[in-house]
């Protein structure tokens, strides 16, 4: 079992103390299953682990909305460029931390691995968004104009932020030498969703938690771990880092 990096004390407790049955997503007598590479959406019940988003019209929602409006009002040209660029969900956006050798041409196996992880993560987040069904900021206040394509899918949790933390945790376990900057990059990725007008701050926090919970389930899956070790070896070789071998298997 890998000794994995996870974000935040609460998240580590989820990994260490909670049995996997706690994550089961119950849908009545039958679990609805979809094609998955490593974990089924039915294995991760985020709608019972996340606090619900602020109620429409509540003081907390007003604060949430005011933060989005302030972020849009204060954003610089550089922030706008970064927010637009981070609309793309590509693990290779983390090359600004890991360096130019972290590129698809150098990582054929790892690229496929990250693609499979994204597919499983997205299926889990999609079911969670449908459960909470929170409208996007620009749907709540027409004075907001999102910088990116205005998706009308539910807002909570942020899918981009969930994805960013899923990837940051995996990358931090591949390249622990860069763990701090990788988590900082995931945080920036999430904040850029607020700058872009696509999400509320509470969506971002829920995404951080969601990504950590999802990875805690990934790291209990033997098929995932087998691919993770192979991808890690490829990534470290491409970055010119020494092999980690079997030290944490």
Automatic annotation (TrEMBL):
Origin superkingdom: Bacteria
The protein's enzyme class: hydrolase
Gene3D superfamilies the record matches: Phosphatidic acid phosphatase type 2/haloperoxidase
Alphabetized InterPro entries for the sequence: Acid_Pase_classA_bac, PAP2/HPO, PAP2/HPO_sf
GO molecular function, one term: acid phosphatase activity
Keywords per UniProt: Hydrolase, Signal
Signal peptide: 1-24
EC code: 3.1.3.2
The keyword Signal belongs to this UniProt entry's keyword annotation: yes
Catalytic activity: a phosphate monoester + H2O = an alcohol + phosphate
Domain Phosphatidic acid phosphatase type 2/haloperoxidase: 111-219
Pfam families: PAP2
GO cellular component: outer membrane-bounded periplasmic space
Family: Belongs to the class A bacterial acid phosphatase family.
Protein name: Acid phosphatase
Organism: Acidisoma silvae
